[in-house]
Design brief:
Strand order of the largest sheet of chain A: 1-2
Largest sheet of chain A: 2 strands, antiparallel
Strand content of chain A: under 5%
Oligomer: heterodimer
Helix content of chain A: over 70%
Strand content of chain B: under 5%
Number of strands of chain B: 4
Order of helices and strands of chain A: HHEEHHHHHHHHHHHHHHHHH
Largest interface: A-B, 34 and 30 residues
Number of helices of chain B: 20
Number of strands of chain A: 2
Structural class of chain B: mainly alpha
Distance between the termini of chain B: 26 Å
Helix content of chain B: over 70%
Radius of gyration of chain A: 22 Å
Distance between the termini of chain A: 43 Å
Order of helices and strands of chain B: EHHEEEHHHHHHHHHHHHHHHHHH
Strand order of the largest sheet of chain B: 1-2
Shape of chain A: globular
Structural class of chain A: mainly alpha
Shape of chain B: globular
Chain lengths: 506, 498
């Protein structure tokens, strides 16, 4: 595929420029079109980038021509190229979906603000993924978070949406400040903000208390941002009360991007040996992750709003990913990355299908949706397929994830963890099965619901696109597996092609 | 001069029938059912073709489809699979004929959905029968669970929903919680999930305890084999329409479970490993316990279909037991019992359904005097019951005999006693049913009239199906040779010219 080094900067510049254009246009339709077109270009750029990087190249782009330690450098290898593609594709799908859905959720005069916010959020997310500069990560994190708070606050249940956005704002800001403090300590210790540079210099000072403090700040900040158990409290409300397009977008991207920062910092900047061998990050993460995915799966079973079921399930899935990552083996890291990719598509599809139901019925309460399979067969079928994928039924993407998670756990000799993952899958059968049962059969007390039309085509199209992606990656699993393996080895090998220091002196 | 035939041809007919089923729908229901019968006949002839090709030494294998990370999905025909395929496809024809009578006689709703899901289930059963490795079998196994879920919950009322919940919970929960990790461990240890003659663990050094654990995971994870304590879904699933109970919950679905167990014993673990490690011993207790316990429960059940369901659980445990004994003779017995029990039990279920359609009676205690009104149905019931009990001249005796021979070859002689007690219990819970129907006087209602006076014999379509399967029990007794011949081709490393 055609590739140019400037593509990397375009990924950030394009949405950043498109956002003010939306504000200038002030028309709902025109701003949607601007957002859509710029997003389409971004998808193409990101795929071109991915096909370039996957051959083993590492893209290093000096912003404004300023060389690395002084200027900001964009740094793209396997893991972020993959995630850039995933984020931009999911953003495109949810944008297509949003056109119809926000009509019922957001007042017409605010539509252009919605799209402007969306584009800024995308800018932030792509910026985090693309940059090789630690401080720049923080800047983009704030761009994406601030626009995210605004998008959540647009939700149709105004009061709850505002409260949800405020809660997210408080916790998100605490998380971001922690990250900033951590980066500050690293800067103090190493005198550089470029991540490869920090990685190079850290071994010389890694016994110092400054580095350990910085490490701790970054860890806690990232745990909040990824909504890891037990600091997840912002997530369920945000997912439930945000406009459905936003929760779909959020579910697929926001926490995944924070997970990326995690991978980048602890595998690349600090180095695997230091993070997991020396500071024993795994010993802290693993118990939290295991308790997290187990408890959150149980909690998901008892929710009545489908969006909340999915939200708690998301936290559980993040637990899986953390469990896999904290194994600090190639197998585990591969499993984690596979699940990041697969879960992004699955959860977005699930949230979109709930959004379709919300569009027609105005509620996502499980008790008021008896027998809707009859009126919305396509939406419900999509939900069922994505749900099976979440459970990990063979021939869906979720099966590939589960297979890798469990074999990685067994490979590390963690039989108990493997058993816990399976137990938690049983919970998924319950919480998904419960919803599917309601969809298929009329409730006895509610006597079913009014007959409505199937969701509009423009909403079903992105939904089924995501479903097809997740089924395809389930049947031809090697697509995702190969990408994940490639980027996992790249992360673990301390990045070949760089003048990286030799291992860890400790 | 070996030619290659792709067993995937057996998956296509049921799937290709679906557009016709949906297209004809409720408006042209004769055409709809005709298209299923045509598909079923084609399917049977394909299976028969595979059987002939196998005897001529053709290579019956599909292309390997790469799943991920070197895992593959493919189909490959071997003797037990061919028998299973032939059996399921033949009984699909018969069941469809029966369904015409039953579903119309019973005025069931959503018949198009019913037939569609049924066809999908059959396609999945074919994939299971011809699966070339454990992963393919696992995928087909899950697909069967999912495609039969709408059949179990067909009625849509609270009881059906509850049954559906248990069905998914036990079958899918068991397979994901127990079978899948066992599969992953197998893959992790050996790097293959293929079915290999003599087992795949020969190269690996694993402790006996580990082998036992792995075998237990697989056998208990196979919820469809209904080994106690994972049997609860089967009696609950009887809430489904009778054709489902008959073909799926007496033959296709449950036999996929025991088929999986036979396959893992023969081709994953191998006889030698099981003999060396004594891995199966604890499971044999479970199987023996299931045989006896289910028979006792069946004795106490008044609901006819529930009694038959517990009888099925017991008979499935025979097959599991025979498979776990793990010698060539016992495996032969297990495969034969799949066939003989299928013909016997499907007949019994057909009869139960026919009684329900004709007289709306579901309890054994209500059947008194019904035999004179429905002589053909109860005659068939009697024949099938004799076959299940294991008396000549019906096929049931042959398979039981071979299983007992297998037990004698093994070190577990005490199992013979279990089998004998079980046969006696079979008599006790099966034979009273036709006897009450024929010899007890019908109850008299308050006016003094015979309450059965309005009851007629079952619909003709049902009777045709019943007579075919009942005759099958008889014919197979004399014509078992081709199946035994086919079974002699089973490749086991320990097989010394059986």
């Amino acid at each position: 595929m055609f590739f140019n080094n400037h593509f990397s900067v375009l990924l950030v510049v394009l949405p950043l420029m498109a956002a003010p254009i939306c504000v200038i246009l002030r028309s709902s339709k025109a701003s949607w079109l601007v957002a859509l077109i710029s997003n389409l270009v971004i998808v193409l750029l990101s795929l071109s980038l991915l096909s370039h990087v996957i051959n083993g190249n590492v893209v290093r782009y000096e912003l404004g021509g300023w060389a690395a330690p002084t200027g900001i450098e964009y740094y793209i290898d396997g893991i972020n190229a993959i995630l850039i593609s995933v984020v931009s594709i999911i953003s495109l799908a949810t944008l297509v979906y949003s056109k119809q859905s926000i009509r019922k959720e957001i007042a017409q005069p605010r539509h252009y603000l919605f799209y402007a916010g969306w584009l800024l959020c995308l800018t932030g997310l792509l910026g985090i993924l693309i940059t090789g500069d630690a401080f720049n990560v923080f800047v983009f994190l704030e761009i994406s978070s601030l626009s995210m708070y605004m998008l959540i606050a647009l939700g149709r249940e105004r009061r709850q949406a505002l409260v949800a956005a405020f809660r997210y704002l408080i916790l998100g800001s605490i998380g971001a400040s922690f990250i900033l403090l951590g980066i500050g300590f690293l800067y103090a210790a190493t005198g550089t903000l470029n991540m490869s540079d920090i990685a190079e210099r850290l071994p010389l000072v890694n016994g110092s208390r400054t580095v350990i403090v910085g490490f701790s700040f970054i860890t806690i900040g990232l745990l909040i941002k990824t909504a890891m158990f037990p600091v997840f409290s912002w997530l369920p409300n945000a997912y439930q009360f945000a406009p459905s397009a936003v929760s779909s977008f959020l579910a697929g991207t926001a926490t995944k991007v924070s997970l990326y920062i995690f991978l980048r910092f602890f595998y690349h900047v600090f180095g695997t040996d230091y993070s997991f061998g020396n500071l024993l990050l795994g010993n802290i993460l693993l118990p939290l992750a295991v308790v997290g995915f187990f408890v959150m799966s149980v909690v998901a079973v008892f929710q009545t709003d489908i969006r909340r079921v999915l939200a708690y399930s998301s936290i559980a899935q993040i637990g899986y990913i953390f469990a896999a990552i904290s194994m600090a083996t190639e197998q585990g890291l591969t499993a984690g990355i596979i699940h990041i990719i697969n879960h992004a598509f699955i959860k977005t599809a699930l949230f979109i299908s709930v959004g379709c139901i919300l569009y027609r019925y105005g509620t996502a309460n499980i008790n008021q949706l008896g027998g809707i399979m009859k009126s919305m067969p396509w939406t419900c079928a999509a939900f069922i397929i994505a749900g099976l994928s979440l459970i990990g039924v063979p021939l869906t993407a979720g099966f590939v994830s589960k297979w890798y998670l469990i074999s990685a756990a067994i490979d590390s000799g963690w039989w108990l963890i493997a058993a816990m993952i399976l137990m938690s899958s049983l919970m998924a059968i319950i919480y998904i099965g419960r919803i599917v049962e309601v969809f298929c059969f009329k409730n006895s007390e509610a006597e079913g619901v009014a007959k409505v039309k199937e969701a509009p085509f423009s909403m079903l199209l992105p939904l089924w696109f995501l479903i097809i992606v997740s089924v395809y990656t389930g049947i031809n699993g090697d697509v995702v597996v190969d990408l994940a393996k490639f980027s996992a080895t790249q992360l673990l090998d301390n990045l070949p092609g760089l003048n990286n220091p030799v291992g860890n002196p400790l | 001069m070996s030619i290659t035939v792709d067993p995937i041809i057996t998956i296509l007919p049921p799937l290709l029938a679906i557009p016709f089923i949906v297209f004809f729908g409720e408006r042209y229901r004769n055409l709809r059912e005709a298209s299923i019968i045509v598909a079923a006949c084609i399917l049977f002839s394909f299976n028969f073709f595979l059987y002939q090709q196998f005897l001529e030494g053709a290579l019956l294998q599909s292309e390997k489809f790469t799943f991920f990370n070197g895992l593959t999905l493919f189909l490959k025909a071997e003797p037990i699979g061919i028998i299973f395929g032939l059996l399921a496809s033949f009984l699909w024809i018969v069941t469809t004929i029966y369904s015409i009578g039953y579903m119309r006689g019973h005025n069931e709703a959503h018949q198009t959905r019913f037939y569609t899901c049924f066809a999908i289930a059959i396609a999945c059963v074919m994939a299971a029968a011809y699966s070339g490795n454990l992963l393919t079998l696992f995928v087909a196994y899950e697909a069967i669970t999912l495609s039969t879920y709408p059949l179990v919950t067909h009625a849509g009322h609270a009881k059906a929903k509850r049954a559906g919940r248990i069905y998914i919970g036990v079958l899918m929960g068991g397979s994901i919680f127990l079978l899948m990790p066992a599969l992953i461990v197998t893959w992790w240890l050996t790097g293959t999930t293929d079915f290999v003659a003599g087992g795949v663990f020969n190269e690996v050094n694993i402790s006996p305890l580990f082998v036992t654990l792995l075998l237990c995971l697989m056998v208990f994870g196979t919820g469809k084999a209904a080994l106690m304590p994972f049997h609860g879904w089967l009696p609950n699933a009887m809430v489904a329409p009778t054709p489902v109970s008959a073909l799926l919950h007496a033959v296709a679905v449950v036999k996929t479970g025991v088929f999986l167990i036979i396959k893992i014993v023969v081709y994953i673990f191998g006889f030698d490993l099981i003999a060396q490690t004594n891995a199966a011993e604890i499971l044999l207790y479970f199987a023996a316990g299931t045989i006896l316990l289910s028979s006792f429960i069946a004795l106490k059940k008044d609901n006819l279909k529930a009694r038959l369901a517990y009888s099925t659980i017991g008979q499935l445990a025979y097959i599991v037991l025979a498979a776990l004994i793990a010698n060539a003779r016992a495996i032969e017995g297990a495969a034969l019992h799949i066939v003989s029990h299928a013909f016997g039990k499907i007949t019994l279920f057909f009869c139960a359904g026919a009684i329900m359609v004709a007289s709306h009676k579901t309890l054994v205690s209500e059947l008194a005097g019904l035999g004179r009104k429905m002589p053909y149905t109860f005659a068939a019931f009697f024949i099938a019951a004799i076959s299940i009990i294991g008396l000549p001249p019906l096929v049931g005796v042959l398979s039981k005999f071979v299983i007992i021979e297998g037990i004698i070859d093994s070190q577990y002689d005490w199992l013979i006693i279990v089998l004998i007690i079980s046969s006696l219990l079979n008599i006790a819970y099966l034979l009273p049913i036709p006897f009450t129907a024929f010899f007890k006087e019908a109850p008299i209602d308050s006016v003094g009239a015979n309450t059965h006076s309005v009851i007629k014999e079952a619909p003709t379509a049902c009777l045709i199906a019943i007579s075919i399967t009942a005759t099958g029990c008889l014919v197979l007794f004399f014509q078992i040779e081709p199946i035994v011949h086919l079974l002699s081709f089973i490749e086991t490393a320990s097989n010394t010219g059986e």
